[in-house]
Structures are given as C-alpha cells and as structure tokens.
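Human: I'm a chemist; would you kindly supply sequence and structure tokens for a protein?

Assistant:
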Amino acid sequence: MIRTPFLSICLLAAPSLQAQTPSLIEAAEYDPAANRWFISNGSSILETSDGGASYAYFGSGLATHGMEVVDGHLFAIGNNVVRAYDLATGDLIGSLSIPGAGFLNGMGSRSGELIISDFSNGKLHRIDITDPANMTTEVLVNATGTTPNGVVIDDANNRAIVVNWGGNAPILDVDLATGEFSIALNTGLGNLDGVDMDDAGQFYVSSWSPARITRYANDFSSSETVVQGAGSGLANPADISYAIETDTLGVANSGNGTPSFHYMGTANAIEQIETEEFARWTTEGLSLSSRTAGTWHIQAFNYAGQLLDTQNIELPNVPTLVPRERLNWDASLQQIWQVTSPSGRITSVRPDQRQQ
C-alpha cells in the first residue's frame, strides 16, 4: 500500500472554515474518518483540515488537555472533567467528573475504555466509555510514585505506556489486567509530555529537555531522535498524536502555540524520481515535489478555459504522490491542471497524458 504524508484538500470557498489562531495549546488528536486534526485552544477545541492553514471551532467543545478519537466520539479533558462529543455533530454526549482528581492530564484509548493520568496525585484512572452518555470510572493505579503525563494503550500487549515529568524521566509499563507496573526505561530526558505509537508498535515521545521527539522500539531496547533542532517547529512539545493513515505525527507545541506536523514514513513508499521541483501525472496520481514545505495551489480548467475546480494542498518538503481520488478528478472531463508550487513555480499538466 502506498503511504502519503499528511495532506488535506479543501475548497477555497469552504464556508465552515473560520479565521482562528490557536493559543495555549496542549493537545493534538487526529480524526482519520474526516482527515482532520483537533487542537486544544485554551479551553476550546479547534479543527483543521488543511495542515493548520485555517481553523474552525469544533462546536462548543471544551478541552484543556488530553484528547482521544475512539468509538465515533472525541473524548477530551477540560478542567478536570472528561467529556464525550459526537464526531459528526460536535454535540456533547456525556461528561464525567472523577472524585478526588488533582490534575487530569494525559489520555490513552482503545475501544471501550480510556486510561487517564492524574499529574498531581500520581494516579491512573480507567474510564469505561462503552456508553459515552454514562461513563464510569475506577482507579487503575493508586500511586505510580512519579508524575504521570502522556498515556497510550498498547492493545496488542494489553498494557498502557505512561511517560512522566521530571529529570531523567521514566517511562512506565502498566499491565491493564492487574494494574501492576514497572519502569520500562529511565530515559535521561527531562519532562516527558506526550506519547503515541505507530502501526509497527513503535512509540513516539515528546520531551521538553531537550525539545525533541524520540522514537522507541516496542520493547524499548533501542531509540532514535526523529525530530529536533532549528526548523523543526518544536517548542515545549506537549501532547502528540500519530496518524497511522498518513504516517504523520502531529505535535501540540505549547511553547509557541503552534502545532507542527512531521511525516514519519519511509522514503521508498513515495515516488522519488528526482530532487528538483516538479509536478506531473503518473499512473497512480499527481506526483509533487518541492524543497519548500507549504501550500500547493491547483486549478482545473476545461479545454475551453472554464475554471472547474480550485484546491489547496498542504505538503511537507518531500516528494509526495497524491492519489487521484483526493483531487476530485472527473475522468470523464477533458482537463488541464495548473499547479503552483510553494515557491511560486507554475506547471501545467494533463491527466490524459500520464507518465508511467
């Protein structure tokens, strides 16, 4: 299966998008059904379908910290209350206050349940979400002895992986059947915040000191730095979300109030013919490449010069194959596509003259 980096296409005239700018962000979460990202915004929730070029409010949803998309709902922590929102309508379906909660922060999910960290009390809570309108809770771990932050559920191994705040911050391995836990690794990093995993079972962890994303093997036997340094966009990286469908890691950067998106796929999954900037049709779709990340502007004309469609695509600075179905391409129409790259270069291509 061909994987493509995070991209979203939107019509310029889409009426639902409003001019909003995130601030005080703590959490990012991907919704694969709608190919959009949720970003916490102070206490509200914003959504973006174009890589952060524009945002809209997700109804009146409230989130200050962790969010999870699971079982057709968005679950969000907002000021120590767990709320469930319908993904399609944004309507509030149910809410739950956990007795004695100190500071609910991170959240992991699998179908039917959430695991939530209590940052200040060192607890882990299990939430039954089989009925989002009537959620129930129990304590999974009463005292971790740490300051738990981000959480992800490794369903295949029936465990929760919990990252922690502080120096030489540990990563905990928690058995979901018994609540027993152990230290999987003392990382040597300071202030771990977010954690998520890809479909290969690898874990991605955000840290503040240094500001970077580290990828760990499923058994934590090896690690590598995958995002760091100038130009990465990282600034006090908080909660993170891995979009398996697009091999893209979304990061809520609390230090600059800006989400960043990082493609984690392998180069051989992308048609990579040459390094210079280009736009051309292939048998699979539209192949785009630029050394500059940003917006590709595409206009489709018929042979009479009538404008048929206008679209924007947000892409990173790596060669990307865009499938035809993502471009609203009608094969029955004779079309000429005018493609403007992020650097301003204009190329005209014809779908009926595809290259092999």
Summary: The domain at 271-353 is CATH 2.60.40 (Immunoglobulin-like). The chain has two domains: 16-265, 271-353.
